[in-house]
Design goal:
108 residues; 66% helix; 0% strand
Length: 108
């Protein structure tokens, strides 16, 4: 008489859980409590707070750099406009000419 192959109970249980997860993946993915139990904790409360503060500071710093970049670009454009003659593309007329609905300077 043939005997069944011996399987470690822990290994058999792991295989059964994997099969269940494969069959019910969509429903299980929507269960936040289950996912929280399955995933290891990555940060302690203090580490998470520190990470959040560093990310917030980086976002604020990025905003300050963008604002400084805008100001520098406008300063450069205005300095080019002030030093350029009236026939250049960045001449005074392109900044001061009234605009029409189409966005082009009105005909003179």
């Amino acid at each position: 008489m043939d005997r069944a192959e011996y399987i470690d109970p822990a290994q058999a249980a792991a295989e059964a859980v994997k099969a269940y997860v494969r069959l019910n993946r969509a429903r299980l993915a929507g269960d936040g409590e289950l996912l929280a139990m399955l995933l290891p904790e990555r940060f302690t409360e203090a580490e998470a707070r520190d990470l959040a503060e560093r990310r917030q500071a980086a976002r604020a710093d990025r905003g300050r750099r963008r604002a400084a970049s805008r100001v520098a670009m406008l300063d450069w454009l205005y300095s080019r406009d002030a030093s350029a003659n009236s026939t250049s593309r960045l001449g005074t007329s392109c900044w001061t000419a009234p605009r029409t609905a189409s966005g082009t300077a009105s005909p003179s």
